[in-house]
Every structure is written in structure tokens, then in C-alpha cells.
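Researcher: Quick test of sequence recovery. C-alpha cells follow.
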């Protein structure tokens, strides 16, 4: 067991912790019993109490079951941050089903793949996303969609400017398979017994990778409970905690460190559907926000607000995040403004958020942190797979209660993702890093091919797989190129198919915007006669990428 970091371990935090042997849904039941009138969610000035959150989750679960959802069925949750996301998440669990959180940036081809891969026949959907999913109704397994407008939950005069998606109202088409959210709740159908336990499937977030299509990371109620509890205990979160939720909840950080942890302690989530720096400052001041988990680009943006000094941010007691390293200059500016050191962490979809966090009393800059409660993390040589010591770079591996079961219906990929060491099953992160003498871990590079654009992870192989759906693309190589604002961005090198010479870069870009998430879309297209290949016929993406970076420098 790796224990080098115990000398900097947070006070009063146990090294190991027994987890509740219950369904994750039970956390909502307990908090609703303890704090029925306490606001679980504050949404642009409107409160949703724990009693009402539980009531709506139960009603929606009854609707799902009365429309054929059975134990173990996968249900898509396709929404932006909203009270409905939380209600929907817990309703799916209450129906003994499995949540498939969907990136709201996903479009037709991505949705079609998820529906096919999970065999989901029911989805919960935001109104602004409806057009992306209705054309898939009854094409495959999908047969039932519950639709909601986020503004339905803004019942008091809004205290800040509402984003466009929250202002949206519209008519839900009268067609088979579509049901209005409020109608589903109004039916007040009671669900059957809660039968799921810690070993049953809970959530399948999708993690893109190096082999084309995304892979579903299979998590049980136990593994989801692990980071829910660990993250709360690590930061000493209490019932009176008020958290600003600005990171997306479809992603494991927002889902775990924000939503599920808040419900576990009976705290309050102040929720933003879309990021806006001025709105964030107003909400921190108005609701006396105590903690804010974010990505570093949000902090950069907040501190760039011209009126930032007009806002009182003194209620903040902790601030941190992950996704991309916090620049030292920005961290210093943040500390000058709030008196707080930015605390970074590290985790993956496969580990249901954090495996490493900086100790609150002793964070290090540009650092992943130390292994958290119950986590055994090591570094192994990329070549020999043998464990290496402090200061030596290698692949970071980890073992703990939050590890996923494997990739959904991908036995070969699952086998490749794990390694046996000291009689334990460790997950291979694909990240190159090292740890120092005190046991702090640092990221150096990635074994896997990945582009980090403003904290969004873009996997070139997935973008290439989608681009091959365009008839003009004979061959394609997706690489990263420097970008002044995003750090790096996505470029596609394309060999046109015969007879497709008239297809322009703008044509390709337009097609991408219709078929994939905006952050994945190539920002640059370059047509070429051929792509360099190795003797075995593999496209030499690294050589192309290095040429681009050298040219830019």
C-alpha cells in the first residue's frame, strides 16, 4: 500500500472508511427525512426543498416504471445543469434502473451510437435538445422521451439574468413517444419497491478513448457511493455547506463532487445551467457560497470580470478543481482576492471522479494531489510495467473502491485497462506522471492520444471515427495544434475521396457541427494528397502533430 503521503494527510480524515451498504438513492431518502424543508437546490432565485425533490423523484420513477422501465434498464439523461437533472438522476435510480448521463453537446451521430450501445428505450431530455433526439424515436430501441423546459423550475422572479436555455419555452410536439415532464409528475404514479443495492449497476458514464467510439464505464452503487462519501469527508463538508455548481453534472466531477456529495450531506446546490462569470460572482455574494468546484478556465474568466472587485467573495471557504492545471499567476491573483489557495484534484470517468486530491492544509500548485481515502496509487514503467520510485516518470495506476467494473460490453478493452500488482487489480490511467518524496503526484504527459482544449478532453480517434461518416473523407488524421486562447485545439488533416474535390473546409466544418459536440469539432481543416504512414500502414499522427507545433513556434 502506497503510504508515502501520510505525513501530509489532512487532520481528522481517516485513511480508510466503511461505505454505506445501500443504494445511492438512499442518500436522498435520508436527507429528506433529516432536512425536509432545507433547500436542496437554489435555481436562479427559486428553491427546491429536499421534501419536494424526493417527492418528484418518486413520481417520475413511477412514471418510468409504468412505461416499461425495469430493473437494470439503461435510461438516457440528456440535459444541462438544472433541477430536472437531479430529479431525473434520482428518479432513474428509484426505478431500479441505470443512469446513462449524456453530454448535452452531443448531436445525432453521437446520440445514435449511445442509444444503440446501451439499448436504451427511454430518455429524459431538455427542451432545447429535443430536435436532436426526436428523429431517433422508433428508429432503434428508443421509444419514450420525457421533455422539460428548465424555466419551469424558475417560479420566483429571477435574481440574475437567465441564460437562453432557461428562458426557452416552447410547444412539445403531439406525437407518440413524447411526454411533457409536468404531465409525468402530475400523474403521481407510485413506484414499486426499491430493490437495488451496492452491487447493482448505477451509472454508465461514457469515456472517449483511443479506439474510436466512446466506451461506457460501468459503475455500481458501491463505486459511486465511494467518491460521494470520500469527497465529502475529505473537505469536511457539512449540512450548512452551500456549493456553487457551475461544472456540468453529466460529467463525473459535477455529478460526484457537486450533486451527489451535496445530497449525501443534505447541503445546498446553487445551480448554474450555463457558465457566466458575472452571474457566478452575484450568486457567490447573494447566497454566501462556501465551496466552488470548477475548471481552471472558469477562475481565469471570473477574475477577468471588470467589476469583480464590487462583489464580496469572502464566504468562500474552499475552491478547487481539475481538468487542466491552474496557471501560477492566476492562482496568485485568486489568493489575493479570496485568501484561498486553489486546490487541484485528479480522477477519471473510470474512477468516478477523484482518486487524488490536494490536502486542504497543504496544497501544491500544478499538482494532482495525494491519493485519497482508501486509494493505493503507484507509478509503473511504460516499458517494463515494473513499479518505479519517487521522481521517476511512468504510468499512473490506482486501486480503490471507486474503480469501475469495466467497459460496457467491451471485455477486451476491460482486460487491457487493468494490471495485477502485489495481488491487487490496478487501473491503468494512461497518464504519465510521477510522485515526489512527500507522495504528491504530478502529471507529465499522456500515454493515450488526447487533446486538452480549455479543459475539454478530445480524443482524436473518436473524432476521426465520426469524420469517416462524411462521404468526402477517404482518410483523416486528427491532431492538436497550438491555440492562443484554448492552449491547443483540434485540426483535421483530410484526404478527399475520389470525385469529392469540390467539398470545402467549410462544408466539412458545417457537417461536424451537425454531427458532433461543439468542443470536439475541428477548428481547422487541411486537405492533403496523402498522410504519412509507418511500415505497418499506421498513420503517423505524432509526426504530423510535431510538424504543426514546430511550425507554430
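Model:
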Amino acid at each position: 500500500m502506497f503510504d508515502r503521503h501520510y505525513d501530509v494527510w489532512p487532520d481528522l480524515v481517516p485513511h480508510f472508511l466503511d461505505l454505506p451498504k445501500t443504494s445511492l438513492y438512499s442518500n436522498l431518502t435520508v436527507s429528506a427525512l433529516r432536512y425536509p424543508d432545507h433547500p436542496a437546490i437554489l435555481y436562479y432565485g427559486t428553491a427546491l426543498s429536499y421534501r419536494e425533490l424526493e417527492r418528484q423523484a418518486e413520481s417520475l420513477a413511477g412514471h418510468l416504471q409504468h412505461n416499461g422501465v425495469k430493473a437494470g434498464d439503461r435510461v438516457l439523461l440528456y440535459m444541462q445543469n438544472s433541477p430536472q437533472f437531479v430529479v431525473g438522476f434520482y428518479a432513474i435510480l428509484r426505478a431500479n434502473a441505470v443512469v446513462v448521463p449524456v453530454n448535452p453537446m452531443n448531436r445525432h451521430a453521437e446520440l445514435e451510437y449511445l442509444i444503440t450501445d446501451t439499448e436504451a428505450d427511454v430518455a429524459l431530455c431538455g427542451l432545447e435538445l429535443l430536435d436532436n433526439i426526436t428523429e431517433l424515436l422508433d428508429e432503434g430501441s428508443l421509444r419514450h422521451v420525457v421533455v422539460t423546459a428548465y424555466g419551469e423550475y424558475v417560479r420566483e422572479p429571477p435574481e440574475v439574468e437567465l441564460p437562453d436555455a432557461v428562458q426557452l419555452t416552447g410547444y412539445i410536439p403531439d406525437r407518440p413517444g413524447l411526454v411533457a415532464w409536468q404531465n409525468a409528475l402530475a400523474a403521481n404514479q407510485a413506484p414499486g419497491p426499491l430493490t437495488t443495492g451496492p452491487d447493482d449497476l448505477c451509472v454508465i458514464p461514457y469515456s472517449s478513448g483511443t479506439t474510436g467510439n466512446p466506451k461506457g464505464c460501468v459503475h455500481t452503487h458501491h463505486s459511486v457511493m465511494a467518491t460521494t462519501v470520500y469527497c465529502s469527508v475529505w473537505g469536511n463538508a457539512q449540512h450548512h455547506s452551500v456549493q456553487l455548481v457551475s461544472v456540468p453534472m453529466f460529467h463525473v466531477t459535477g455529478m460526484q463532487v457537486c450533486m451527489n456529495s451535496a445530497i449525501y450531506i443534505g447541503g445546498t446546490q446553487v445551480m448554474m445551467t450555463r457558465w457566466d462569470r458575472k452571474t457566478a460572482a452575484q450568486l457567490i455574494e447573494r447566497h454566501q457560497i462556501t465551496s466552488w468546484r470548477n475548471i481552471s478556465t472558469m477562475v481565469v474568466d471570473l477574475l477577468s470580470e471588470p467589476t469583480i472587485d464590487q462583489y464580496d467573495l469572502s464566504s468562500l471557504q474552499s475552491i478547487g478543481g481539475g481538468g487542466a492545471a491552474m496557471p501560477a499567476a492566476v492562482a496568485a491573483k485568486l489568493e489575493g482576492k479570496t485568501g484561498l489557495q486553489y486546490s487541484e484534484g485528479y480522477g477519471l470517468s473510470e474512477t468516478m471522479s477523484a482518486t487524488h486530491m490536494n490536502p486542504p492544509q497543504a496544497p501544491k500548485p500544478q499538482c494532482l494531489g495525494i491519493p485519497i481515502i482508501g486509494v493505493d496509487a503507484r507509478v509503473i514503467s511504460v516499458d517494463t510495467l515494473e513499479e518505479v520510485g519517487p521522481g521517476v516518470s511512468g504510468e499512473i495506476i490506482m486501486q480503490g473502491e471507486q474503480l469501475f467494473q469495466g467497459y460496457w460490453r467491451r471485455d477486451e478493452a476491460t482486460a487491457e485497462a487493468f494490471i495485477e500488482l502485489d495481488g491487487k487489480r490496478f487501473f491503468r490511467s494512461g497518464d504519465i506522471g510521477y510522485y515526489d518524496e512527500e507522495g504528491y503526484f504530478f502529471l507529465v504527459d499522456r500515454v493515450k492520444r488526447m487533446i486538452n482544449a480549455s479543459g475539454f478532453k478530445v480524443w482524436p480517434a473518436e473524432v476521426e471515427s465520426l469524420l469517416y461518416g462524411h462521404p468526402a473523407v477517404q482518410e483523416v488524421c486528427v491532431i492538436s495544434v497550438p491555440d492562443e486562447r484554448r492552449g491547443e485545439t483540434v485540426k483535421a488533416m483530410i484526404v478527399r475521396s475520389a470525385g469529392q474535390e469540390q467539398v470545402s473546409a467549410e462544408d466539412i466544418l458545417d457537417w461536424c457541427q451537425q454531427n458532433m459536440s461543439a468542443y470536439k469539432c475541428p477548428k481547422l481543416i487541411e486537405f492533403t494528397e496523402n498522410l504519412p504512414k509507418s511500415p505497418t500502414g499506421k498513420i503517423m499522427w505524432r509526426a504530423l502533430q510535431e510538424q504543426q507545433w514546430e511550425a507554430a513556434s
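The first strand starts at residue 39 and ends at 43.
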